[in-house]
């Protein structure tokens, strides 16, 4: 096998990616994000505080546990811990599961042919080709279930262990370790290949495209669109943060009275507002100046809005079954649910009657199936 590698012979084999493997890939990559690390630190701090406070009370004032206010304080902190740990985890699992379904509905095909040689990894599917050269900054994560290759732009190729023979797994590992910076070769377990032979691919056809066109917003539309996105974001996140602020204020009020509770509550609200402002104000200011061309595609299963970039295209995918409202006004068509929003100026639509017929047909079909 090593002689084969020395001759730079390419390995070519079929791979797929099911929902479970997709979820594992997403969760693995989330561990490398700053937000995930910060969340873990905060969770550890809250857990440590709750634990040490309880231990201190048990050691020094065991009778205090009979005080309802002390018990309520501990319960509040426990609720904070649940809010911080459990709810985001549930939301993340739902987001990942839906992300796989949305990707398939949006035309993404995960079954394809992978070629691995001394230069890098290439995957060819019905929906496109991704090539990841073996550069010094390419990240490779090896775990028992898969190899994961991701470049600095976020493009990735996953090689599940069920699609690898023992020889192919050995060859991939050898090539990756020779070419990738050891600091970026992360081992969370040794891949356990389970394929007796290379995978044979079955034909996978993406959903049929019904209509596609380009959209370019003018400055007024960009500002209006950004305002709508900001309002939707605040309305979606505010309830959870108000709950978090309330629990903090109750905890402060138990020890220091109503004034402390009120001050804590409004300070927490101010922090929330400040964080939102830091995030959205720069984006709002830049929105009118940015030159963005979108491609809007309607297929049999979804409405897809794609923004081309120099690195990885950004997609918003709304499956017909998930669309809550499709509204036509004098100037635009708005398609949205409680999480996603698509604004299509009518001036960009070449055949409005055809688009209207597609949307009406799909929305009516969805209502009949509900």
3D structure, described in words:
With 370 residues, the protein is α+β, with helices and mostly antiparallel strands. The protein has three domains: 2-17 and 110-187, PH-domain like, CATH 2.30.29; 30-105; 211-369, Roll (PH-domain like). It is 49% helix and 22% strand. The protein contains eight helices and 15 strands. It has helices at residues 2-6, 19-30, 34-60, 68-105, 166-179, 219-256, 258-287, 352-369; strands at 11-15, 112-117, 120-125, 128-133, 139-143, 146-150, 156-160, 185-187, 209-216, 293-299, 302-307, 314-319, 325-328, 332-336, 341-345. A four-stranded antiparallel sheet has the order 1-2-3-4, with helices on one face. The longest helix has 38 residues, at 68-105. Residues 3-7 have low confidence and may be disordered.
Summarize the helices and strands and which ones pair or pack:
Layout: H1 2-6, E1 11-15, H2 19-30, H3 34-60, H4 68-105, E2 112-117, E3 120-125, E4 128-133, E5 139-143, E6 146-150, E7 156-160, H5 166-179, E8 185-187, E9 209-216, H6 219-256, H7 258-287, E10 293-299, E11 302-307, E12 314-319, E13 325-328, E14 332-336, E15 341-345, H8 352-369
Parallel strand pairs: 5-8
Antiparallel strand pairs: 1-2, 2-3, 3-4, 5-6, 6-7, 9-10, 10-11, 11-12, 13-14, 14-15
